[in-house]
Specification:
about 300 residues; alpha/beta; Rossmann fold; Alpha-Beta Plaits; 6-stranded mixed β-sheet; 4-stranded antiparallel β-sheet; 11 helices; elongated
Length: about 300
Amino acid sequence: MSGALLSAQGLSRWYGPVVGVNDLTLEVDGGIVGLLGPNGAGKSTFLKLVAGEIRPSRGSVRVLGFEPFANREYFRVLGFCPQQDALYEELDAREFVSFLLRLSGFDAREARSRAERALERTGLADAMLRRTAGFSKGMRQRTKLAAAIAHEPRFLIVDEPLTGLDPLVRTEMIALFQELGREGVHILISSHVLHEIESVTQDILLLHRGRLLAQGPVPEIRKLLSRYPHKVEIHARDARRLARALLELEGTSTVHVAPEGGRLSIETFDLARFHAELPAIAARERAGIHTLESTDAGLDAVFDYLVG
């Protein structure tokens, strides 16, 4: 058995003729990991398998050394915030989180104290005594997250946690995930909001049609895509003069100058060489570079390249 946080071997799950996850073999060392994929990629099925909600049709999965399915000992160290909205609407937020803690074995006083701390961490300190029936979608999301972290789990699974949150609350939630990570909590966070995942972690699992398409840090995955040119946008005082010089640089495939001038787009198969030689070229040509941006170095580009 490896020391990995999560290990899957030939993991498959199907629903009659519909395949949710297909022959997944992977290891995750820990920390904060993003789970990405388009709709129907198998993300929710994979999360349910890891959370112990469903049993594999074939293969195996172990988390923290546990077989997840129906394992009470594992559930004590697991926090799970599902995408589905399932609150007891006759209860206020503190009562809801306290009730779940009581089911987990905490006494009434400890459950209430933990519920209050968790709701404060998710930004609901002023709303915890309000009935959840009147909560907005974002508040309901934060209540579910509070319930998932109130017992201080070692491993937290969050499925689309940023859905329905306004920009300010999204920023606060991202900061909370980062804080939990620094505290040593392992987090598997599923989302289709790629740039927000990238602000939490560079380590990703990319699923497509029930299979593992890519795994690892975003920059390393991007390096594997050598058959795709990298795109660079430059704003310069003399864009046309710079464009002519860059066309001579080995690895450059295309250079396009915007009609209004001042901006040019470059595609290169050797980004490292491009960045290494650009300063000397710009100085020689007296191009006067104002801004430079690698527009496809992030998750959106990796995602589009791999699933396209």
